[in-house]
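Q: Structure tokens for this one, please.
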Amino acid sequence: MIPQVDESFSKIYTAPSLQKQWHNESADILFVDTNPFADEYFTKPGGYNYDWRGVLPREMYLCNLLKDVDSALKESSAKWKIVVGHHPIKSAGFHGSTDELVKQLLPILEEKNVDLYINGHDHCLEHILTADSPIQFLTSGGGSKAWRGVMNWPTHPEEVRFYYDRQGFMSVRITPAQVDIVFYDVSGSVWHTWSRTKEIFSIV
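A: Here is the predicted structure, written as tokens:
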């Protein structure tokens, strides 16, 4: 058990109903702070007052963050590698793809064989698989501000495997041999599924 997790989770949530195995040793899930990557937050804050304490100087923060991501993924021996960030790397939604993440974060994720990148930010549900990347790009941001009527993916529309501009949610089920993704609407109806399997034991 990671000490920080033990201190901030295990010793806090003590109700008997919560004393169940909540982690999955088949997967490593890495959360990345994507806000400092977005140039517009610094150049065009739009009247918002962002608190960048602990982030400035930005270049140094991002450099260290990317090194940490690279190191954590390199050390991971998990069958499945999943990275989660607020901003999308690839998206057909209102905000669209995040160029800064495409240029700086994506090459590391591809090199380290990440399976899934999960994000919010765009208020929709979507599944994208592009021809130039093996990563599944999954957006689950359909909690509010949906119904914008925007889908912007001008080339290769077949790369957008699923797009739902309404409210809903996504589930992820992980076993040593398989990952199952399911997208639901607010009523719990299934709108899209995707699965991938891996061999548990390699044959020598």
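A few notes: The chain has a mean pLDDT of 90. The CA atoms of residues 45 and 114 lie 32 Å apart.
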